[in-house]
Amino acid sequence: MNSRGFRQQAGFACETCRKRKARCNRVRPQCGLCAEIGVACVVIDQRPQRGPKKGQLDEMRVRIAELEWQLGKQLGNQDPSAMSKSPPNPEHQRSGNTTGSTTPSIIPVPLEDHAHTSHPLNVPTLQTITPARSRASSIIFPTTSNHAATTASATVTTTMPTFLGAEHDTSLPALMDWQDIEMDSGMLADMGNMLQFDLEAGSPVRFLGGFKVTNLVLADLDQLYFDRLHDVLPMIHRRRYFSWADQEKPSPARTCLRSAMHTVAAAMSAQYHSLGDALYQETCQLLESQCMRTLSGCGSSDMSLFASTNNNPGPRPSIAGDKIPIELIQSWLLLAYYDVVRSGEHQAMVTAGRAFRLVQLARLYDVDESSGVEDMPSNPAGSDGDHSDQNIPYIIAEEKRRTFWLAFSFDRFLCSRNEWPLTLQEEAVRTRLPASEASFQNNQPTRVCFLSEAIAMSTSPQCYSSTMIPLSPFAECIVLAALHGRCMTHRRMSMLNTGTDEAQEFWTRHDQLTLAVEKRAQILAQSPSLKLVNRDPMVLFTYMLAQKSVIYLSGTLEMAFLQRQQQQVGDRQLFASSYKWRAERAAVEIVGLADLARSLGCFSMHPFIVDPLACAANFFIRSAQSTNARGPGSARSNSSSSSSINSRNSSNSSMSNNDGEVEKLLCLLRHLGHLNVLAQDYLCTVEAEYSTWCAGR
Residue 450 pairs with which residues in a beta bridge? Predict the structure, then answer.
């Protein structure tokens, strides 16, 4: 029994851990949490006793009674017997106190005669009638001036109801009985504003865009971000963010990141939706000024940094990249996300371009060029389970990886619809794929392969999907985004090169991409994360992206058949029906996933999920148009009449099925259009094409 350890460790927890309600490992001179967030570790051994001091409650009751008597005398609405009474004697009130405590004397407050006025009670009036600057009185009537220590001249601009008859009854229930007060709507509104103050001392309250922004609102926006947006923007370490989020003066880059997180959280909230534009403007101003200061100090004038790198052999690292905070890049990416859902893809492309250039300057594409996660310790936790500061480099490196890959994927998704050229090229990437979310948040260093290795395994015929190790949902999304970028490049090259030699290269690329996409889709289907498809928006979007790539490759093949000559196509036409069948199966799979997407809600969905939905809808419309154009006459001339009737019935059944699938996809696009401007753009395009097809059949 004596060998049983104690749950409570010896000693006192530091002030930082007590404030954050975190478990302190009591390491001296600096505990693990303080070392992680980089603050001084302060330990207070002697603490005062809790609770009010002796006489504070009695003093507060006496002061309330004094104020009520003064108000009643000023307003003159009491009966003559009550008016003839003298004010309550503070010494008499304290004579019944058996505690024997001494309290400061109470100084009466002279009030001017304004009995003829009648105005609602407001906050400045209450803040000017405090008799003295004591702890008890400041609890009820907080003041902002420190010079009114003895007397205060106040102007009472209100008509108080007759509830002051029991001035000698100084108990709190008697003094706070409001049930018989007659109040109009104006007085209720003023009292509501009076009582809605932040309980934290010195907390800032500001108005932004007509919205009252308090610490409670900012905390709610933080929670909204991690509840609704972190799954699709998984680049911020939650514990590390909250370690500095409530600091009064964080670094300028962290201030920009916090403001950007609040901006996108407001965009995904019905309560704070109107606050988003004001936060967006404020964040843009912060980022513009901070980027100007950061980049202006990263020029060639810093000769000390040049001197420190001239002695080192090999390529010299970018001086500007060493000084660019990762929070600035994350902030621009979050604003680009906001532009996608609120402004459109053109403005999002401009904003994302700022992030892409900073990614290149910071050299986030070669985070693992020389050293990677294999140099990190395998056991991330200490003996008592608390994380020490040895894992800070891993957290920072993993945040850099996730920030780069989010920008990499964002580049592919933004350029998909309009076939824009890509900014972040795949050939220069020397950054490992991100680890799982659990490893990232729990500070558990994990080694993951490079993107080139994952794609090489996908394109190799000797490597089967059953033997490949599944990646995390975010890493799978990155691999599929890279494959989709290759599909876009493949289509552009097929439109430019139509010679005989280039035709063979086209078919080789097409077969490799088809094999890679199908393997990744099979890995997703066998992955345990597929069970979370109706709860995790990243898993849902990743699986949709795989199906969309299959449809995209089928469309590229159809365009190649139309452009190339018969001798260049050869016997490849025999495989056209199989590719189209794969695309049709992928489109049906997207419709099934769209039904599951409703359980997530429109606030949590990936912003680019509308792209696979619109792609599947366009495929059904084109397929129905081609079937309707061929008609029953497409049958051979020597076929019987019964086969023609069966062909006509099959055509009508196919068109009716396509109608139902398209309507399901359009319904989800309309649902997403309330929050996503990109969904509105896709909806207009698909509905116009759908209406044209319905009118012409």
Answer: 432
Interacting residues of 540 by C-beta distance below 8 A, sequence separation 6+: 533, 534, 593, 596, 597, 600, 605, 606, 609
Whole-number Å distance between alpha carbons of 503 and 495: 11
Structural contact between residues 516 and 490, judged by C-beta atoms closer than 8 angstroms: no
- With 0-12 / 13-18 / 19 or more C-beta atoms within 10 angstroms meaning exposed / middle / buried, residue 322 is middle
Q: Does domain 1-47 have CATH number 3.30.950.10?
A: no
What's the token pair of residue 434?
A: 């991100």
- Measure Cα distances from 113 to 66, 73, 76 in Å: 17, 10, 10
Q: Is 634 exposed, middle or buried (0-12, 13-18, 19+ CB in 10 A)?
A: exposed
Quote the CA–CA distance of 437 and 536 in Å, as a whole number: 12
In the prediction, which pLDDT does 285 show? 93
According to the 3-state scheme, what is the secondary structure of 373-434?
HHHCCCCCCCCCCCCCHHHHHHHHHHHHHHHHHHHHHHHHHHHHCCCCCCCCCCCCCCCECC
Which amino acid belongs to residue 378? S
To 10 degrees, the CA torsion angle through 139, 143, 149, 155? -110
CA atoms within a 13 Å half-sphere pointing along the CA-CB vector of 650 = 13
- 370 CA to centre of own chain: 32
Q: Is the pLDDT of residue 536 over 60?
A: yes
pLDDT value at residue 150: 38
DSSP state of 450: B
* 17-56 confidence digits (pLDDT tens): 988 888 898 888 889 888 888 888 999 888 777 777 778 8
How close are the terminal C-alpha atoms of the chain, in Å?
A: 85
Q: Where are the alpha helices (DSSP H) in 102-244?
A: 123-127, 135-140, 172-175, 185-195, 215-224, 238-244
Buried/exposed 539-562: b ≥16 CB within 10 Å, e otherwise: bbbbbbbbbbbbbbbbbbbbebee
| Tens-place pLDDT, residues 474-532 | 999 999 999 999 999 989 888 776 565 567 788 888 888 999 999 888 888 888 777 78
Q: What's 40-83 look like in SS3?
A: CCCCCCCCCCCCCCCCHHHHHHHHHHHHHHHHHHHHCCCCHHHH
Q: What is the pLDDT of residues 644-693, one digit of tens each?
A: 334 444 444 454 567 788 889 999 999 998 889 999 999 999 988 888 87
The answer, yes or no, to whether residue 553 has pLDDT greater than 60, is yes
C-alpha span between 170 and 60 (Å, rounded) = 9
Query: Domain coordinates of the chain in residue numbers?
Result: 1-47, 56-195
* Cβ atoms of 647 and 655 closer than 8 Å: no
163-168-173-174 Cα dihedral, nearest 10 degrees: -30
- pLDDT tens per residue across span 226-278: 999 999 999 999 999 998 988 888 899 999 999 999 999 999 998 898 899 99
Confidence band, pLDDT 50/70/90 cuts, at residue 327 = very high
**How far apart are alpha carbons 458 and 607 in whole angstroms?**
27
Contacts of 558 (CB under 8 A, 6+ apart): 576, 580
DSSP category for residue 553: H
Q: Quick one: tokens of 432?
A: 């490992």
Over its C-alpha atoms, the chain yields an Rg (Å, rounded) of 35
> Of 484, 459, 400, whose CA–CA distance to 434 is shortest?
400
Burial letters 112-141, b for 16+ CB under 10 A, else e: eeeeeeeebbebebbbbbbbbebebbeeeb
Give the residue among 333, 340, 327 at the shortest CA–CA distance from 355. 333
